[in-house]
Each structure stands twice: as C-alpha cells, then as structure tokens.
Design brief:
By secondary structure, the chain is an alpha/beta fold. The chain has an eight-stranded mixed β-sheet, with helices on both faces. It has a six-stranded mixed β-sheet with strand order 2-5-4-3-8-16. Strands 6-7-10 form a three-stranded antiparallel β-sheet.
C-alpha cells in the first residue's frame, strides 16, 4: 500500500477513543509472511480480475506468502457500441502461465498446499458448444449493448417481485437482458451454444472436463432464486434458453479433484488436491478485508466500486436500488455496485494527460473541496447502483476558461464518492446505527486524497485494510474454512490499518455538491 501523504483528514490508530465503532486489534502487524514462517495448511489462490490475473499462496491465517505470487495483465476490449469482451481461451492461458510461475517458485512449499481456491469478476458469460469449446467471446458486466432489452423485461415481468426473488434489478449487466440481446442480434451464434458458463466454470471445465457453478457466482447472474438457491424458473420461462443450458449449482465448500492428464503432468503437486469452485470476487473481498459481520461494511474501489455487507441469513427486506447476492449457501451479501471507480480515475488521467504529472497526489490534495465549480456524472460505463440506468453516460457541467485538468480529475473523484454515498444511505437502513467502513481495492488505497474525500463525503471514519489482495485472501479463507482449518473467522487477524476521519466543514460543502449532482442526474439521466 502506498504511504499516506499528509492530508487534512485526521488519521487515528485502530482502537482510538475517537472512533465510535470498536476495531479488533490485529494479531499480526503484517498481512504477509515469509515462506519459512508460513503456517500450514497453505492455499493456492487464483484471482481473475477485470484487468489482471493473480495467482498466489496464503497460509493458515490468511497471510500472503512473500514472493509466491505471479501477476499478468489481460485486456477487456471495449467498443463504441458498448461491447466489453475478452477472448476466454487467451484469458485461460494467462491463468495457466500464472500457475506455472507460482508453482516454479514453491519448491518444498508445494507439499504444504492443501487446496486451490478461485475468485473471479462476475456478471461474465460465454457460450460453449457440445465439445466444451468456446464459440462466443467472454462478455462482462460492463457490456451495455443489452440496455434496450430492459424495457421488454419490465413489460413481461413485474420487476419488484423479480428483484425480491433474485436480488437483482433488470439491467444490461445481468443475464436476462443479455440473453435476449444475443438471441435477437446474433441469432446464428446464439444457436451454436450448447451451454452458457462463466469464466470460472470454463476454467473448471478445461481442468476437469466437468463443471458446476457456485451459488455465489450464480447469484450475480440475475437468474438465481436467492432464497431457494435454484435457477429462477419464472424468468427462464420467457428467456430464449433452457435451464439445462446452465451449469448445475453447488456450494463453495464442495471441491473437485483429479486434474485431466495434461494438467496433472503440468502441475503434479496439484493433481489430487481439492479445487474449490470459483466465488464472486465481491464476496471474497468482504471476507478478505475482515468485513464478515453486519457491523462492518466493505468499501472496495478497484476498476469499479462497491459497498457490501455480509449477513448470516437472507434479508427479508431488500431496498430498491441495492442487490443481494450470496457468499455461499449460508451467508448473503447485501450492497450495491457502481460501474464507476478506478476506471474513471485511470480514464481521466489518460484523457487529461496527467499520467506522468509530477506529484499528482500532492497537487490534488492542494485543491479545495468542490472549489472547481464542476458537476460530474461519472457514468463512463453506464449506471448500476443505485439508479440502474444502463443508458447513462458521463457528463461534465460547469466548464470555464479557468478549468484545469486537475480540477476535472478532482471533481471526478468527488463525483464517484457522491455515488458511493447514495448506496451507503440505502445500505445503512439495514445495518447497525454506527457501521464501521473498511476500505480496500488498489485504486482507492493508492490515493490518500480519494480516501480523504470518501471519509468526508460519507461523514464516517474510513479504516484502511492493509491486505494487499483482499479478494484472493477471501477465497483462501473460504477454502480454509471448508477444510476445517478455520473453525471461527473471529480468531484470525483482519489487518486494519490507518483510519481517515471525516471533517464536518468539508462534509457540508460536499453535501451541497451532492445536491447539484442529483439535480443534474434528474435532468440528464432520468429524463432521457
């Protein structure tokens, strides 16, 4: 994690009397461990993210084993028509190369690996033929081409009970709309598909010749009945697919064993180990950052943003604007996800030619909150939570001759925080009055300015998770729990670091800016 620069937000150590929410002290200062000190059993993790693949090792306490990670980037291709696609076979080659890299480093540690866990970005889908060969690209949640199908879904179904059953709104990022779009716009390709799978299922299919989908990943499709944990037959009755074209459902603690010969020869130490089904990376990010209970909310900002809380039972009331996914067959995940996040930060830096700006963080910190006169709608990939307006696009209002690229970038970071605050307002209605917010995700943790903005906008302390790879760690912890190595998550360290405290005066300024953003949203998005 990048060192914190001096900002005007006060930072206090965990456990300070200035915090109204108690934070359990971590048992260890560091979230990593050197190989010689790693406690058995070890878990090998595969994390397929939207921009990179990471494979690493974690020990019994969920500490990353130093030096035992391989990372490779990959590309999601975006087009002006709204496509967001990747080549699934090329992506799996990246995964296999990362596995090669880590296994080449393990040496004697290989014998201490007790299982393999995986997490992936979710809301992704590809079609395979009867021989399990990919016949379509892998499309992601950021693909907006199915937006026009949402109106048809709302005409054919009552969205409110569908939202309650599946935990998902009708939106272009979910499979009901995307299946209809594919059937209508690519009918020949659509008819070639024997089965629809996510990238995690496709990986399992290649490794073992068979596959199932975890309740976690299935819950992100918009087609899982979140209470009964079965595919939703009501929605499927008016979609152009059959339930047999979807994978059988399974829980995250039910592994598969016995790699196919070509992979057993490639990684002999892994051939007989339990390989657990892929879990949604949002769920594992909560687990990995220590956000396991309703009193602690995970704020994750990577490529996208999300606020999520783990519940031990499905919530009876599901607020409009939020979703409810599953961690596993027992635990639910309530929250909201935004398409905007680190992608906005990265896009703005590139478009405004600020990538190589000297001491960018210091320059952004020197700007007064909302002193730029700009109002930004940061919808570069449409809107998900809380308005679910997939047709929404980015807007900047208030430009003048005095506007600088730094002003636009700062306004964009503030704008994302305003959208996060809307989700938090809905989420906190279902939580204890003083929930603790724990931040993770590379985009947010690498910017102290953005952390300061978040604390001020939310008017809540924001604690920083010092876990470098929260999603990978969460996958490892779930596997360790399944193996019986962790009887109680409360007994493992959660690695909470600095806490950014809000400033009341800045909160008031941001509250006025949020009202401007909402007014612009009502004019530009709601009326379009």
């Amino acid at each position: 994690m990048a060192k914190n620069l001096q900002t005007s937000s006060r930072r206090v150590k965990p456990g300070s009397r200035n915090l109204k929410t108690k934070i359990r002290q971590p048992e260890s200062v560091e979230s990593f461990v050197f190989p010689a000190q790693a406690e058995e059993p070890l878990i090998l993790t595969i994390d397929i993210g939207t921009s990179s693949v990471r494979v690493g090792l974690f020990d019994r306490l969920g500490r990353a084993v130093e030096g035992m990670e391989t990372r490779r980037g990959h590309e999601i291709r975006a087009t002006a028509e709204g496509a967001a696609e990747a080549d699934p076979d090329q992506l799996l080659e990246v995964v296999f190369n990362c596995l090669d890299g880590v296994m080449a480093k393990t040496g004697r540690l290989a014998s201490k690996i007790a299982g393999v866990a995986a997490c992936t970005f979710v809301n992704n889908i590809l079609g395979v033929d009867k021989k399990n060969r990919a016949v379509t690209p892998l499309t992601t949640y950021a693909d907006t081409r199915a937006e026009a199908e949402v109106a048809g879904l709302k005409a054919d179904f009552d969205e409110e009970p569908a939202h309650d059953r599946t935990g998902c709104h009708f939106h272009s990022s979910y499979l009901p709309a995307r299946f209809r779009w594919l059937s209508n716009h690519q009918p020949d390709l659509f008819r070639r598909v024997a089965r629809w799978v996510s990238i995690g299922e496709y990986l399992e299919m290649k490794l073992f010749g068979k596959t199932a989908v975890s309740y976690s990943v299935a819950s992100w499709t918009g087609l899982l009945n979140r209470r009964k944990l079965v595919w939703d037959v009501i929605l499927l009755s008016k979609l152009p697919i059959e339930v047999e074209q979807l994978s059988p459902l399974t829980d995250v603690n039910i592994p598969r064993r016995g790699l196919r010969p070509q992979f057993a020869a490639r990684w002999p130490a892994l051939q007989h180990l339990p390989w657990f089904p892929a879990v949604g990376d949002g769920a594992t990010a909560n687990i990995g950052s220590g956000c396991l209970y309703p009193a602690r909310v995970a704020l994750t900002v990577g490529t996208t943003s999300a606020l999520r809380v783990v519940l031990n039972s499905p919530p009876k009331h599901l607020p409009h604007g939020l979703w409810c996914y599953r961690v596993d067959g027992r635990r639910s995940l309530l929250g909201g996800a935004l398409s905007e996040g680190g992608s906005v930060f990265a896009w703005m830096k590139a478009a405004l030619r600020l990538k190589n700006y000297p001491r960018l963080e210091k320059a952004l910190a020197a700007l007064e909150p909302d002193a730029h006169g700009l109002t930004v709608l940061p919808f570069l990939a449409g809107e998900r939570s809380p308005g679910w307006a997939g047709h929404a696009r980015g807007t900047i209002n208030g430009l003048s001759l005095a506007t600088t690229p730094l002003h636009i970038l700062r306004a964009s970071l503030e704008a994302v925080a305003y959208r996060v605050a809307l989700v938090f307002g809905l989420l906190r209605q279902e939580l204890p009055s003083e929930p603790q917010i724990v931040a993770s995700g590379g985009a947010l943790l690498s910017s102290p300015v953005w952390l300061t903005i978040m604390a001020d906008v939310l008017e809540r302390p924001v604690a920083v998770s010092t876990v470098q790879e929260a999603s990978s760690r969460g996958a490892a912890l779930l596997a360790l729990e399944a193996l019986g190595a962790i009887p109680d998550f409360a007994k493992i360290p959660d690695f909470i670091g600095n806490v950014y405290q809000p400033d009341a005066n800045r909160y008031l300024r941001y509250r006025q800016a949020r009202e401007r953003q909402q007014a612009l949203y009502d004019k530009v998005v709601k009326r379009s």
